[in-house]
Design goal:
- The protein is α/β, with parallel strands linked by helices and 282 residues long.
- It is built from twelve helices and eight strands.
- Strands 1, 2, 3, 4, 5, 6, 7 and 8 form an eight-stranded mixed β-sheet that branches.
- A hairpin with a 2-residue loop joins strand 5 and strand 6.
- The chain is globular, with a radius of gyration of 18 Å.
Length: 282
């Protein structure tokens, strides 16, 4: 196990790229002392830490046509576009069993980010036992408008990307001098201001911090990209990201596009594997 942080950005179905990266890691027996993940990156992280090669990709692609997994019927009936019961119980407990025992053998720690709806702050949850901590994973992935607010211990949470989309600073604060960062956009990407602030102010009028978070998210996100670039230039971060703009949105049903993005992630990582190992072993 390398003493380093692994940072996994979210991005919905763009997580197919990350699924390719982590399968390359598994093929090369790479383990990290800390994993810090957000939103879809959190789901990829737990499959990686359970050492189930291909599972992250299967979960993204195998159930696209199942309305319990993702459908506007779900959204209208339950307030969730992606069905939490399907994703966090039916799939891991029945359809594509999650190896809970292998996950608990992980000697590092897995931290997932969620945004506190009342304070507007990022909160970091340590996933120790996924059977008990699954609502923390749900909270990290719950997109505004498309998912219900998730209550945990009397507090209310939404998607961690609202508050900390790339939690490299958290990893550094916890002592990781080296970090491997997996991004789901190309190097020229910069986030633009959101256009849904008026809607958010109406939908979440009881939680004004949500609209404030989204209004300033592009500033925080782009600042973090600059920070990651500085860490990379000073040889404290190793960054894996798509080489070209990703033409896949947060919800994508074209399996060929998802397969191509997965292949990109796997190939990009294998091409740079020697450099990555050299970085980790310095």
């Amino acid at each position: 196990m390398y003493s380093a942080g692994l940072i996994l950005e979210g991005g919905g179905m763009r997580g197919a790229y990350t699924a390719g990266v982590i399968d390359a890691f598994l093929d090369n027996h790479l383990e990290f002392s800390g994993c810090y993940a957000v939103s879809a990156g959190s789901c990829n992280a737990v499959s990686y830490l359970s050492k189930q090669r291909g599972r992250a990709y299967r979960v993204i692609t195998d159930y696209i046509g199942d309305k319990r997994y993702c459908s506007f019927r779900n959204l209208l009936a339950t307030g969730n576009l992606f069905g939490p019961e399907m994703i966090y119980h039916t799939i891991p407990e029945q359809l594509d069993p999650f190896d809970y025992e292998e996950y608990t053998r992980y000697e590092g720690k897995c931290i997932v980010v969620a945004a506190n709806c009342e304070t507007g702050e990022a909160e970091y949850f340590h996933l120790k036992d996924l059977r008990e901590d699954v609502e923390m994973l749900n909270a990290s992935c719950s997109l505004p408008i498309l998912a219900k607010i998730v209550p945990i211990a009397g507090k209310k949470y939404l998607d961690g990307g609202l508050a900390d989309s790339i939690p490299i600073r958290k990893s550094i604060a916890e002592g990781n001098r080296k970090n491997v960062v997996i991004l789901t956009q190309d190097s020229d990407y910069r986030k633009k201001p959101a256009k849904i602030i008026p809607l958010l102010k109406i939908v979440y009028r009881e939680y004004p911090k949500i609209a404030e978070l989204v209004a300033a998210r592009h500033i925080r996100y782009n600042d973090t990209l600059d920070f990651v670039a500085k860490e990379e230039a000073e040889d404290r971060a190793f960054v894996l990201r798509p080489k070209k703009p990703v033409k896949i949105g947060k919800v994508e049903t074209n399996k060929k596009k998802l397969a191509a993005l997965y292949d990109d992630g796997f190939r990009d990582t294998m091409e740079r594997m020697d450099d990555l190992i050299a970085f980790l072993e310095k």
